[in-house]
Design a protein that fits this description.
The protein is α+β, with helices and mostly antiparallel strands and 553 residues long. It has 3 domains: 224 residues, no CATH class; 167 residues, Oxidoreductase, molybdopterin-binding domain (Sulfite Oxidase, Chain A, domain 2), CATH 3.90.420.10; 106 residues, Immunoglobulin-like, CATH 2.60.40.650. Helix content is 39%, strand content 20%. The chain is built from 15 helices and 18 strands. The strands form 4 sheets. A 5-stranded mixed sheet has the order 2-1-10-5-6. Strands 3, 4, 7, 8 and 9 form a 5-stranded antiparallel sheet that branches. A 4-stranded antiparallel sheet has the order 11-12-16-15, with no helix packed on it. Helix 3 packs across helix 6 and helix 9 runs antiparallel to helix 10. The chain is globular, with a radius of gyration of 31 Å. The structure holds the ligand Nc1nc2c(c(=O)[nH]1)N[C@H]1C(S)=C(S)[C@@H](COP(=O)(O)O)O[C@H]1N2 and molybdenum atom. Ligand MTE binds next to loops. Molybdenum atom (MO) binds next to loops.
Length: 553
């Protein structure tokens, strides 16, 4: 950095010009503010951390095309990308605040106050926010501003006064006798001689202490926040296979062992795609959890987790779920063995009133989903699930309870961390994504994906083209593959697990060296052929045939 402000002698002595130190002061002040805020958030609750609330607010107001871009570009890492982007912005602002403070420290304080106000506003306006949640941002900003003032003072004050109290007392005394002007002259002379080394030392002490405060408060906050972690409570839950267990997977349904590169029939929990609006994973205590069913019902009901888990109508089913943001050939789909309570039974107990056409569910993250009441009542295996592949639901996938309605995209059916179910109408309320212009109802479209061979690095010879196809609730009837400009060839369909699961398919291929184009299309059991016409995910799911360019060596 080029420094034009400092005088030549200082530059000669000090390798870090004043502006650089001011910028560092800005960054350290920001870290102090964030550290203190994390500590307070540790006392109040993780949903009051400024990083979390500001990130959440940013996600909420991000225009749809940007959000789509983030989900498809960064995939699972969209949240990490957001956090890194936010931190980069904070660093730039903090640098600017430090530099401007050198000119006028009121600007610096105003800058930090603005940040604090933003954090407090975001915390208060979060769906789950209240006035207490503004404290981390406010207190963080106050302490951060104090740290900034101390560091900037060390940079700009005549250091000799601050450092040498004897002299300043003497100076004050002489003030009275010899007058202000003389004294000023003396001071300036001393400052010329000493300021360089002294303000350096003062600054290093001030910034070192501040950095220490940031580190201690930040790590203490992170440690304290661990007490909100539910992993122990989750591990303590005992998942039993219910009497109404999933049907055995038929022989020949799973081709993954025979075809390298093919997606497993069941997705490991650890590999399961995750899509939601949260930066951090909501932590819901299973003992505190309850679900209220209310609105246009005859009997308002409340269930605890124990209530649900001890029922005698529990089912276990294999279901593939899919995100509406999945692009053609994308991987925002996964299959699991779920255990839960049939939604129909719970709604019957509540007694749905006529005309209540929307089941509006709300989660702890404030997210809302609207599902047609008709689908909740009629779709086989629509459930409130509490287990996934033999374990309690992972925190990422909605622990302790989530909703599943086979055949509908996640944003209209798959409420994770669900706590509230209100029977209402579509006219009365728009849920989260509908407010952002996605379609009100969204059945999953017929899809087929080529998993293997890979686009590059494959040698000529006898290969297998294989993948998955899904059309939940209708089932897959046929998969066809076209190689280059050839005719459509019918692929071998693996045995069907059930109509709510995706299905493996494969086609042997004698591949010759060169570039080839592979295209796949599926037909569902209603006889409907997957449309060739391309559609983007917005507003109700991507469409079109998956096409893959492969280079055979
Ligand atoms: N509480 C909550 N539930 C949610 C969401 C969310 O943002 N918050 N996202 C939905 C969307 S868009 C999808 S595709 C599925 C994804 O479920 P998964 O992360 O378990 O794969 O969760 C749904 N349930
Ligand atoms: Mo989704």
């Amino acid at each position: 950095m080029i420094d034009t402000e400092t005088v030549a002698p200082e530059r000669a002595v000090n390798p870090w010009p004043r502006r650089v130190r001011a910028a560092i002061a800005g960054i350290i002040a920001a870290l102090v503010a964030l550290g203190v805020a994390e500590l307070i958030a540790g006392l109040i609750g993780p949903n009051s951390s400024p990083v979390v609330v500001v990130g959440g607010a940013v996600i909420d107001v991000t225009p749809r095309p940007v959000k789509d871009f983030a989900i498809t570009t960064f995939g699972e890492s969209d949240k990490i990308a957001l956090v890194i982007g936010t931190l980069a912005l904070i660093v730039v602002f903090a640098l600017a605040i430090g530099l401007l403070s050198l000119r006028d420290r009121r600007i610096g304080v105003a800058g930090i106050a603005l940040f604090g106000a933003l954090g407090a506003f975001a915390a208060f306006t979060r769906p789950t926010g209240d006035i207490l949640d503004t404290l981390p941002s406010i207190l963080g900003a106050v302490v951060g501003a104090g740290a900034l003032l101390l560091m900037i003072a060390a940079l700009t004050q005549p250091a000799v006064e601050a450092a040498d109290s004897d002299r300043s007392v003497e100076a004050r005394r002489s003030n009275q006798s010899t007058g202000l002007l003389d004294n000023l002259r003396q001071n300036l002379a001393r400052r010329d001689r000493k300021s360089t080394s002294m303000d350096r030392r003062g600054f290093f002490i001030a910034s070192g202490v501040a950095a220490g405060v940031a580190a201690i408060t930040g790590s203490a906050g992170t440690l304290i926040q661990r007490r909100f972690d539910i992993s122990n409570a989750r591990a303590a839950l005992d998942i039993q296979t219910p009497a109404d267990a999933a049907a055995a997977v038929p022989a020949g349904a799973d081709l993954a062992a025979e075809v390298p590169g093919l997606t497993p029939l069941f997705t490991d929990n650890a590999d399961f795609y995750r899509v939601d609006i949260n930066i951090t994973v909501p932590q819901v205590s299973p003992t505190d959890w309850s679900l209220r069913i209310h609105g246009r019902v005859r009997n308002e009901l409340t269930f605890s987790l124990a209530d649900l888990m001890s029922r005698d109508d529990i089912i276990e089913r294999d279901i593939t779920i899919t995100c509406v943001s999945n692009t053609v050939g994308g991987d925002l789909a996964g299959s699991a063995r779920w255990i839960g309570v049939p939604l129909r039974n719970l709604l019957d107990e509540a007694g749905v009133e006529d005309g209540a056409d929307q089941v509006l569910t709300t989660a702890v993250d404030g997210f809302t989903i609207g599902t047609p009441t008709e689908d909740c009542l009629r779709t086989e295996n629509a459930m409130l699930a509490f287990a996934m592949n033999g374990e309690p639901l992972p925190a990422e996938h909605g622990f302790p309870v989530r909703m599943l309605v086979p055949g509908l995209y996640g944003y209209v059916s798959a409420t994770k961390w669900i706590v509230d179910m209100e029977l209402t109408t579509f006219d009365a309320v728009d849920p989260y994504w509908v407010q952002r212009e996605w379609d009100v109802t969204a059945p999953i479209k017929i899809s087929a994906r080529i998993d293997t061979p890979a686009s590059v690095g494959v040698k000529a010879g006898d290969l297998v083209i294989a993948g998955v196809a899904w059309a939940q609730t209708r089932g897959i009837d046929r998969v066809e593959v076209r190689i280059d400009r050839g005719d459509w060839q019918e692929a071998e369909l693996a045995a069907e697990t059930n109509v709510q699961m995706w299905r493996h398919w494969r086609l042997p291929w004698r591949a010759e060296t060169g570039q080839h184009t592979l295209t796949v299309r599926a037909t569902d059991q209603n006889g409907e052929l997957q449309t060739e016409e391309r559609a983007e995910p917005f507003p109700n799911g991507a469409a079109g045939w998956h096409t893959l360019q492969v280079f055979i060596q």
